[in-house]
Amino acid sequence: MGAARKIKQEYLLEGLDCANCAAKIENGVSKVKGVDNCSVNFATKTISFDVEEQQHSEVSGNAKKVITKLEPGIDVRDKNQASKSKVFLLEGLDCANCAAKVEKHVGKMDGVASSNVDFVSKKLTVELNTADDLSETIKQTVTRLEPHIHPKEMGANQSRGHDHDDGHGHDHSHEGGIKPLITRLVIGSIISIIPFLGDFIPGVEIALFAIGYLIIGGDIVWRAIRNISRGQVFDEHFLMSIATIGAFLIGEYPEGIAVMLFFQVGELFQSIAVNRSRNSISELMDIRPDYANLQVDGETKTVSPEEVKVGDYIVVKPGEKVPLDGKVVKGNSLVDTSALTGESLPRDVEAGSDVLSGFINKNGVITVEVTKPFADSTVSKILELVQNASGRKAPTEKFITKFARYYTPVVVIIAALVALIPPLVVPGATFSEWIYRALIFLVISCPCALVVSIPLGFFGGIGGAAKQGILVKGANYLEALNSVKYAVFDKTGTLTKGVFQVTHVEPSSNVTKDELLEYAAYAEVHSNHPIATSILNAYEKQVNEAHVLNYNEVSGHGIEVEVNGKQILAGNSKLMVKENIEDVTPSKVGTVVHVAVDHVYAGHIIISDEIKDDAIKAIKELKALGIKKTVMLTGDSKAVATEVSEALQLDEFYAELLPHEKVEMMEKIDEQKLAGEKSIFVGDGINDTPVLARADIGVAMGGLGSDAAIEAADVVIMTDEPSRLADGIRKARYTRKIVWQNISLALGIKAIVLLLGVLGLATMWEAIISDVGVTLLAVLNSMRVLRNK
């Protein structure tokens, strides 16, 4: 009888945010009878194990019980039945309140796990926890809530592309478009002016004002009525309708019309400003290639980048964007990498060089062999990250959205009290006077300035950071960078170059430096070890292999050769001891290669991993920004770690650590934090995945083109420059400054106008102008974050 068939079971561990918890779960589930090959991937929050098919149900159930017992806060979900994501483009979305309304109601639908509307990119992302396809139901729900919004489901390619917008549409509340709207406003204004041009009987005068009002704002009133019938009362349509109809009821006809007119004009300008802001961000990241020159049977034809396959050859001419990731097989040129890395200096490429999609070819013609399909190319990943980043909302955004939800009803209640209480308790007060003051409350209470400008501010910050070569995967991470107080670094590839180089040549008295290097180069010429390569690179001359005789590699010791009649030994100190040659203890730290010629000690060469050019600058800038402690975690020796730490003036270092020990050390560092402080870990994104996931903010250094880096980290520094981390923190702080300027500006002006309105010192004219004006100012202020370096 054959062995029982085994199947792989995978679960998502929602809520898993502790590496020790992951290890605990893996250990616990491994002990469940019937479980084999149990593994927990902390980065992807998944557990997988093998189980016999016949025992699948029982064993899997027992495994889930163990997980729940060990970590009650973790939600265990079958990966095969996990939530599906759908993305919809909400064409016509120009109102932040409408966005919040759609997000709230879609999120409450059966079968929907979560709903998120990104107002800036007009995208609705829905996570489904059902196998049913709810696309049509979701579309119908959105259309029922906001008839002027036209939801369109987006596929994988669409979600990666740009959402082109001409910047001139004004769909919100104006289904007919901008020209009919302007025509209505002009006609309505002319009719409203007629009563001022002559004497009319009261009935005709009121009728003219009413006709003008309905032409200008009839659609707003209709929208308010329609929303009230659905139980959606407190929105800007309701506020404007009540305020202006109230003005009519107390005989303030011109002001009622003026408020509605200014509201419509303000909404129009706001829409244009928002769309232009969106376009500014889109243009900032305009790195998507439009076509590729594909070589087919000796000819070149223009095709879409999506049509090109791995292994195909493409030609990139001067001035064109490199459309896909690949390797240069012919030609040489300079490429502009600034769109991806923020580097101003062009880079030389030649046959054998790797190039990435988004680079711009400057002068020569190059032929490139494609190594990745367009969907997996660097430019696709970057665009997807940046465009979807604002979907991960910052705490400030979430607070303002929640604040706006309660702010408007509270103001309406206060307005009702202002209208009713003073006429009843204040001698001489009239209802008409206090109702008028209450109407000012309604006009100024619209929270558009906040809910529009703040998402734009964060999105602009993310776009501006991307232009500097810093990919931030969410507004929440951008805001979290403000609170970083502990910066923890990996060494190799992060603070050092990760490439072995000859850093010191120490000859004895009987030879020169050049002679010592020459002896070592001849000894190492047949070796492909990185140490041998670094010596040959340092020698920089051609080695004539014909002169090398009797090559002998002494395992664990070094190399023995004969060159031009001289016996040369090159290796570690054990080789010198073995041959009874007295060597010298090096004064420098690194890998040491001792050299002897005819059994006489000739000197030693130090080979080490070189510190990156701007690593010292990076640490100084971080300390200047108020970082409390800079720490290095490395698996390298204590001597090497000490030298690097002293050169960079780090506060602490921990050496000779295994990957799991780095996680444990990160957790100890986290215990030092005060409330509200954040830690950041900077690594290469491949070997340091567990630590990247464990830190409050994981940063992949030198992650350009690295799938593992982009997947594991919260922030990706697209160059090998540690100083970009300080740039990212400065960008985060400037973004926060802009956001809080907008909050202070909006709430401050509204508070002043509300107070003046209660005191009878402001009219509805000031209220509507200040409301529209502060929104436009806040939107324009948000765009400053794009220009800040």
From TrEMBL:
Catalytic activity reported: Cd(2+)(in) + ATP + H2O = Cd(2+)(out) + ADP + phosphate + H(+); Zn(2+)(in) + ATP + H2O = Zn(2+)(out) + ADP + phosphate + H(+)
Domain called HMA: residue spans: 7-75, 84-150
Cellular component terms (Gene Ontology): plasma membrane
Protein topology in the membrane: Multi-pass membrane protein
Stored CDD domains: HMA, P-type_ATPase-Cd_Zn_Co_like
Key word Transmembrane helix present: yes
Biased composition (Basic and acidic residues): 160-174
Hydrolase as UniProt keyword: no
Keywords annotated in UniProt: ATP-binding, Cadmium, Cell membrane, Ion transport, Magnesium, Membrane, Metal-binding, Nucleotide-binding, Phosphoprotein, Translocase, Transmembrane, Transmembrane helix, Transport, Zinc
Name of the protein described by the UniProt record: Cadmium-translocating P-type ATPase
Region named Disordered: 150-174
Protein localization: Cell membrane
SUPFAM superfamilies named among the record's database cross-references: Calcium ATPase, transduction domain A, Calcium ATPase, transmembrane domain M, HAD-like, HMA, heavy metal-associated domain
GO molecular function, one term: metal ion binding
NCBIfam families: ATPase-IB2_Cd, ATPase-IB_hvy, ATPase_P-type
Matching PANTHER family: CADMIUM/ZINC-TRANSPORTING ATPASE HMA2-RELATED, CADMIUM_ZINC-TRANSPORTING ATPASE HMA4-RELATED
Transmembrane portions of the chain: 204-222, 406-426, 438-459, 739-761, 767-786
UniProt-listed InterPro entries: ATPase_P-typ_cyto_dom_N, ATPase_P-typ_P_site, ATPase_P-typ_TM_dom_sf, ATPase_P-typ_transduc_dom_A_sf, ATPase_P-type_domA, Cation_Transport_ATPase_IB, HAD-like_sf, HAD_sf
Membership in a protein family: Belongs to the cation transport ATPase (P-type) (TC 3.A.3) family. Type IB subfamily.
Pfam families, sorted: E1-E2_ATPase, HMA, Hydrolase
Predominant localisation class: membrane
